[in-house]
Design a protein that fits this description.
288 residues, mainly alpha, 78% helix, globular
Amino acid sequence: MKRTLLFALFLFATSLFAAPGEQQFDAGRLALAKGQIDQAVELFEKAVAANPKSSDFHFWLGNAYGSQAVKANMVRQASLAKKTLAEFEKAVQLDPNNIEARFGLIDYYMRAPGFMGGGQDKALAQAAEVKKRQALAGHRAYARIYMTQKKADAARKELVEAVREQPTSAKAHYYLGNFLLNDKNFPSAVHEYEMAIKLDSTFMPSWLRLGQAIAQAGTNYARGEEAIRKYLAYKPSYDEPQHLGAWYWLGQIYERQGKRDAARSAYANAQKLAPGEKDIEAALKRVS
């Protein structure tokens, strides 16, 4: 009883020193990670109301509005799109160095029609601003635009150039690895992720993507299992891949080795995190 009371007092005391809106902000990011979009919007709106000068609060509210728009009907989509754009623009206005908010604007400008504020020229202008501030992020920004334009060669060139400029950057290798993974060049993706881990083994997303690339490549399953297990032992932040994908790809590794019981257990853990996900349901049927 004493311990419970002391813990409650500790939480209360901690809340007194939290910045305005911080608790709602943290709860909102957790809700968004769980797919509880409406709840996330409500929490982020409260965070913004408590601290309207926070660039991050506005950016994440924009993310939540964008997530709502994906599932909304056409009439509501237009309203939510305007809200999304307004929040991203406000985030950049409050902090011009908020790179993620500028990425949000790039995505919006590339996808939205002109009458809703979209435009490739606007996206390119944002990419230029990003590159002024962070060279690696600038290459990523241009690659993002090129991929939306279906210019895969140009996107690859940007990410290869990033590695040439910063050969000791784990993240540069990681982002190139992601491109190669999406391009189904699995051996090259594995190489880039291994380089990223060699340069910085504490950058944990590299472990997850290494495991995924190995699962899709169909080789060296022991290394793939090791990589994914490392990620499952790690608690990802809100802006890192969550454990859902880790459990799914671990299931894939076991399934491809004929380890049906282990695969079924991994898929079941993935299903707990995403009930109703069709790919996971199909995987469970294969190993049942």
